[in-house]
């Protein structure tokens, strides 16, 4: 399965932008052909003029080609925002609504504070992942991906009861939960550990990812429902094992760039990589840490810690406890 944040997907052919030279040549041929339909002699003169880079007409066609390329790129961006893999912000909200999903509220904020604290909403990557897992919502949590979907959308499934209060009358009740702890879950995984036994590991959004007792109880109660977990599965819920790590490194930059700017960019890049890998089964590669610093302007990198790659299993997640990068000039 393609999973956002873990896989890459090439852009579809529909969003390709024709090369400048090809578009310009098409413009020239179109102009010459249109004139040739009424005045072949004039068309020959125009064709010769357009072959000259210094001609005003050539410059006008070059400018029109740039305008067309810019417009094509704009249309391409609009097309990509209709596809779940690339959609962002409100465009992604509209796309996931096709499957009845909506963005979760991570923190309610405080509208009465001064200045008001806006609510913190689920990020795009988490919402995108739930969208791709959504087809598994139509069944009980049997398949591994279904367990993951149900844990990430915790409590959003209504409880359905069927009663027959009198003969010939059937009452079906959909009882929606009053609150949901789904926004507390950053990642989750259900895996068969023995015949008839499934362990669901939960990673929290709070702190280093270790879930609170309250969150674990919410997950246990949800998977105890007979309409969620199969009756053949004995479900055990556990918190993710947190694997702490830190980054200590020295990076060298060429003379010229500001050391403070290079340091800030390097720390931001490493932190972004650490946040991306703070998930179940995440892994920290020293080569990726070096790449993050090279992207900040480093020409040489020496990494003291971690000395080797850190690879988490399905029930554990790496968590960065600190980033210490020293920037030196060559």
Q: Which spans have pLDDT < 50 for at least 5 consecutive residues? A: none
Number of distinct helices: 9
- Strand fraction: 15-25%
Q: Percent helix among the residues? A: 25-40%
Oligomeric form:
single chain
Mean pLDDT: 85
Cα distance spanning the termini: 45 Å
Largest beta sheet, briefly? 3 strands, mixed
* Radius of gyration of CA atoms, rounded to a whole number: 28 Å
> Strands of the largest sheet, in order across it?
5-6-7
Number of E-type strands: 12
Descriptive account of the structure:
The chain has 330 residues and is α+β, with helices and mostly antiparallel strands. It has three domains: 13-80; 139-156 and 179-239, GMP Synthetase, Chain A, domain 3 (2-Layer Sandwich); 242-329, no CATH class. Helix content is 36%, strand content 25%. It contains nine helices and twelve strands. It has helices at residues 20-36, 40-50, 56-80, 89-96, 124-133, 144-152, 213-223, 259-277, 286-294, and strands at residues 105-107, 120-121, 159-166, 169-175, 185-194, 197-204, 234-239, 241-253, 283-284, 300-305, 310-311, 316-329. It has a three-stranded mixed beta sheet with strand order 5-6-7, covered by helices on one side. Strands 10-8-12 form a three-stranded mixed beta sheet. Strand 6 (197-204), helix 7 (213-223) and strand 7 (234-239) form a beta-alpha-beta unit. Helix 1 (20-36) packs antiparallel against helix 2 (40-50).
